[in-house]
Amino acid sequence: MPLPILRIPVIALKYIVNHMNKIELVKIALCSRRADWLFRRCGQHQLSYFDIYNKLFVNLNSLEHFELSLLEAGRMEGGVCTSQPLYLNISFRDSIEVTVDGFNKYTFNVECLNKLNKFAGTQRSWMMKNRHIPVVMTKNGEMYTFWNNRADGLIFLLKCLIERFRYVTHTLYVHSKIMPDALESLRKFVDYSSLPEVSLIEFRIDFDVQMPIEDFQYILENVKFRDYLVRKCAFASCFDANENFKSNGTIPCSDLSIYSSGHWITLEYLLECKHKEIIVAESKLTNEEIKIYMNQWVAGKIPDIREVHIEMTENFEVEHVLSELQKCRMSDCSQSSDYLHVFVKGAGDKIAMIHKFKTGLFVMNVYSDPDAVVIEDRVKKFNGSENNDENEQEESDRDENTKEKDKTD
Fold first, then answer.
1. CA 30, CA 75: separation in Å to the nearest integer?
2. What whole-number distance in Å separates Cα of residue 341 and Cα of residue 338?
3. Among the listed residues 302, 300, 235, 306, the one whose alpha carbon sits nearest the alpha carbon of residue 277
4. Phi and psi at residue 88, in whole multiples of 5°?
5. Same domain, 91 and 133
6. Boundaries of domain holding 43
7. Which InterPro entries does the entry link to (predicted)?
8. Inter-residue contact 265 to 292 (CB < 8 Å)
9. What is this structure's pTM?
10. Is residue 368 assigned to a domain?
């Protein structure tokens, strides 16, 4: 029979709470403002999820972290915590693992229900939003949740967190050991990333990931980075796509890193994308295409880019690619830097520093320098003055010849 705490006189209640488990006191206090007030009258002034860990140094398992954090956020104004950001790191490997990093750090796993009896530990039924969720707590405090459909379970738990915390960011890492039955969950997460309340800041695909090319295509065409225009949002892939693979559209992220099979990154992609940093390995881009790219950048049609690293099919011909562009020198660089780089004047105060590699690598860094010194104009002026001197000399010679001819006549 439950103990009627709210009906017990304060003197008796003080004796009871002094002998109660701190975690149980916090749970009761978080569920009832009246109980929280009574506990404070009994001398219990540190009854919050934040205090129980940092002031009372009580060790909690992952399930207790999850429950108490939601309860703590729920009693804040509007039932949403706005003071504490959460960072969710989702890893797809032989299992689906979610690490929650915020005021405290804990991890939970999402598994198939048919694997329930394969895990050693304490089994219990966890009630969340009127759903009974089978849970196994291992001896080292790890938490495994079990679902008929892992994809639905993952999204359910993630939504529980983003509903209670205002500032939540997600990172996703697809490991080489990803199991085939996790691919459905991966697609569901990609769909989840398009929700307006979801902020995805990083998506990584490891080397040797075994997935159908259709799943990779689905990721590229549907993953969303809501905040990529205002903060760093990175997409990185080491996936080995076949030679015939093509992608439609561009990925809405600030940083793109393709470490393998980058042949699908075309000139059209580079001209359409809004990335700030680009790394592409094993591309099929040529010097002529890089020349077009640079001409478009000088014209101010690629205003967002800050850094580019592209592995080409041929050696980078810096003189040919930049032959028609205006050269300059940055205000804080010595003349000796010209031996390693070429500086190109862009739109406004933008300056591109191009590395003089004699290999198949195009590297560009973009800076702002309103005091950059244009050096190409000096050459033109010098050449022009030489031509004028030559013309004047020719005219003088013609005049002398004319005078000599008149005297002879």
1. 7
2. 5
3. 306
4. -105, 120
5. yes
6. 1-59
7. F-box_dom, F-box_Sdz-33
8. no
9. 0.84
10. no
47 and 66 inside one domain: no
The full length of the chain comes to 409
Interval 195-202 mean pLDDT = 97
Based on its alpha-carbon atoms, the radius of gyration of the chain, rounded to whole angstroms, reads 33
Quick check: 50 pLDDT over 90? no
Do 68 and 159 belong together in one domain?
Answer: yes
For the four alpha carbons of 297, 302, 306 and 311, in that order, the dihedral sign comes to negative
CB 251 within 8 A of CB 220: yes
Nearest CA among 202, 194, 313, 204 for reference residue 258: 204
Question: Of 111, 133, 163, which marks where a domain is finished?
Answer: 163
pLDDT tens string 211-252: 999 999 999 999 999 999 999 999 999 999 999 999 989 999
Q: Are 294 and 362 in contact (CB under 8 A)?
A: no
Q: What's the structural domain count of the chain?
A: 2
**Tokens, residue 21:** 């488990």
Please indicate, yes or no, whether residues 82 and 54 belong to a single structural domain of this protein: no
> Maximum distance among all alpha carbons in the chain?
139
